[in-house]
Each structure stands twice: as structure tokens, then as C-alpha cells.
Write a structure and sequence with these properties.
Length: 352
């Protein structure tokens, strides 16, 4: 991949290209942003563009330098990562020794440091001198998701380039460029882009299982059948607060989008703007069983429930109340819906 072919962050791309065009590649750079995979991709392709034998201010992707960098086998492009919680002193010593020598093959030598915020004060001090008095042939690229954790003395010696998260459309293109089918890429991008830390880690199979599970839950809520099974399952999950909140947040997101699609279908049954277009038939069925008021009610209920659980209120009591509002009038017991054995709402787990 060449520099121009990289997806997203056009500003960063333009800055890197201008360094090459003007032959003013800084000796030390910081790439900061929430997606480490993306930063590494930019760093590697920038190194390739700078070292390419064809001197076109970009990577030709065909010369032996470009090919070797792609395979991770080029001696003048080194990727470092912390050995343990922090970079160790011996890692830094080795790096500094390497940085005192001329490049082995190319005109420049690139050192790409992942998780640069994990340089602690001890290890950073010796490294600082290398940054202060750089050999003109060295280029250090420090990658970090947390710029604030990089020592100010290091920051002040680097050009800082800030990366923005990829938009849905950019994530989709990025996934497609890696061979993901366009329809799967669209759904993965839609559901994963917001909190995506690593675009390479998204998993179609996992998303598909979650969407199907949420579609079944929604089906039960709308048909008012097996609602108590949902309650039991939520009860079970609510034992572990953190994983329960993560699960429930995802549940609210996925179900809200399914409900959004149902509303679209209520207005226009032939709509082509569904997010879950692969579930159209099933969603049409559900649209015929409910109405806009009920959908708004459900969305509001779920959002309030998520908000209250995040505020440390008793998850189990809240779940009971939520499910109660979904139990058909005729089957509701005077005290509320049936609770799981031994799970009296007043004695539920309190996350205070
Ligand atoms: Zn090349």
C-alpha cells in the first residue's frame, strides 16, 4: 500500500507527503490517536515512501525495499514494543546503540515505537539524549493512544501528528481493502466504528451472533413471549457489574438500531435505507405487530435503564421493573412479575 492509498486522516497524510516532497522529514514524530493499528499502518507506509528506491515521494510497492518492508524484513525499519509493562532499560540501551550507527542499507533508518506512553522516566532519560542530538539519518516515530502520558520533555522534541478516529465510511473502506465483503463491512463499520480501538480486531462472526441474539430478544419483547427468560438471563449476567454494563450497553445499541429499522419500515415498506437490511423480512413481521408509541416507549425504557445501572443503582431491581412493563397485564402477579428463585428484588446485588 502506498501513502496515497491509506484510508482516512487526509490531513496527516498531506503533512507526511509534504515532508517527503520538501525533503524535510523530522527526526522525531509522535502519532497520537485512538486506533493503534491505523497509526502503525501510517508509520510503516511513511517509512516505505521515504525509503523507496524509485524516489517518487511515495511507495512504489514493487522495489526490493518496499517489498522487504511489507514483509517486516528490512533492517532499517525497526518496530519496538515494551517488554512488559514498560520499556526496559536494556531495550532502550539497544535502541540507542542502534541509533548511533549509520543505516545498514537505506539512506535513513526508521525506529517505530509502539505504546510510547510506556516509556517511564528512568528509561526515557537515556533516550532523551538521542532525541536531542539526532543523527540526520534517524527517524523516530512514537505511537501512542494517550499523548498526555508521554513525558513533556519527549513531546517537546517531537512533531506531533494527531489522528482522528475513522468515520463509518472509512472503516468500511478499510475493511473492504482487507477483503471483507462490502455488506459485512458496512454492518461491521456501523456497529463497531464508535468504540473501535483496532479496526483489525473486528470480528464478523461475533457481531453476527450478537445481532441474532438481540433480534430474538426484540422478537420476544414485541410478542410478549418468553419475557421471563430474558429476565432470568439478565439476572444471571447482572452478577458481574462491569461485564453486565458492557453487555447491556451493547444490547441497547443493537436493539435501538433494530427498532429504528422497524420504524423506517412502518413508514415505507420498500425502504432501501435499513441498517439491518439482511433482516428485512423478519423486521417487516415485527413492524406489523407493534406501533410507533410502543417503540418509543421501549427505546426510552432501555436508555433510562442503562443510565440508572451506570449510576450504580440496583441493577436487579431495575431489570425487574423493566421486564414488568413488558409482562402482559393478564399474567402479571400482584407483586410484579415472577422473580427467579431466591432473587427477591429488595435483596438484589447492590452495586454501591
Ligand atoms: Zn519502492
Amino acid at each position: 500500500m502506498s501513502l496515497v492509498e491509506l484510508i482516512g486522516n487526509t490531513r496527516v497524510k498531506a503533512t507526511l507527503s509534504s515532508y517527503l516532497r520538501n525533503e524535510r522529514v523530522p527526526s522525531s514524530l509522535i502519532f497520537t490517536g485512538s486506533d493503534p493499528y491505523h497509526q502503525l499502518l501510517f508509520a510503516l507506509n511513511f517509512a516505505k515512501a521515504a525509503l523507496c528506491l524509485n524516489k517518487i515521494n511515495d511507495a512504489c510497492d514493487r522495489c526490493r525495499y518496499c517489498l522487504a518492508i511489507d514483509r517486516g524484513l528490512f533492517p532499517d525499519v525497526q518496530i519496538l514494543e515494551p517488554d512488559g509493562q514498560f520499556y526496559r532499560k536494556n531495550q532502550l540501551d539497544e535502541l540507542i546503540a542502534g541509533a548511533c550507527q549509520r543505516p545498514l542499507q537505506a539512506e535513513k533508518r526508521f525506529f517505530i515505537m509502539k505504546d510510547a506512553q510506556r516509556l517511564n522516566e528512568n528509561s526515557a532519560n537515556s533516550f532523551l539524549k538521542t532525541l536531542e542530538e539526532p543523527l540526520p539519518t534517524n527517524v523516530f516515530i512514537l505511537l501512542t493512544a494517550n499523548l498526555a502520558q508521554i513525558l513533556p520533555t519527549i513531546q517537546s522534541r517531537c512533531q506531533i501528528l494527531k489522528f482522528l478516529p475513522l468515520s463509518n465510511q472509512e472503516v468500511k473502506l478499510e475493511l473492504q481493502s482487507r477483503g471483507v465483503d462490502p455488506e459485512k463491512a458496512r454492518l461491521l463499520a456501523f456497529f463497531s466504528a464508535d468504540d473501535m480501538e483496532d479496526v483489525a480486531a473486528v470480528d464478523w462472526q461475533e457481531l453476527e451472533e450478537k445481532r441474532q441474539a438481540m433480534l430474538s430478544i426484540l422478537d420476544c419483547l414485541i410478542r410478549q413471549s418468553q419475557v421471563e427468560d430474558i429476565l432470568l438471563d439478565l439476572y444471571d449476567r447482572s452478577r458481574s457489574r462491569d461485564s453486565f454494563i458492557a453487555y447491556f450497553r451493547e444490547m441497547v445499541n443493537l436493539i435501538s438500531v433494530l427498532l429504528r429499522d422497524i420504524m423506517v419500515l412502518m413508514v415505507d415498506g420498500s425502504s432501501t435505507t435499513l441498517i439491518n437490511s439482511d433482516y428485512k423480512e423478519k423486521l417487516m413481521e415485527l413492524a406489523a405487530l407493534t406501533n410507533i408509541d410502543k417503540i418509543f416507549f421501549l427505546i426510552r425504557k432501555m436508555e433510562f435503564l442503562l443510565r440508572d445501572i451506570q449510576r450504580n443503582l440496583n441493577a436487579r431491581v431495575l431489570i425487574l421493573e423493566f421486564i414488568n412493563s413488558y409482562t402482559p397485564e393478564g399474567t402479571r402477579t400482584p407483586g410484579g412479575t415472577r422473580t427467579p428463585e431466591g432473587a427477591c428484588p429488595q435483596q438484589g446485588v447492590n452495586y454501591g
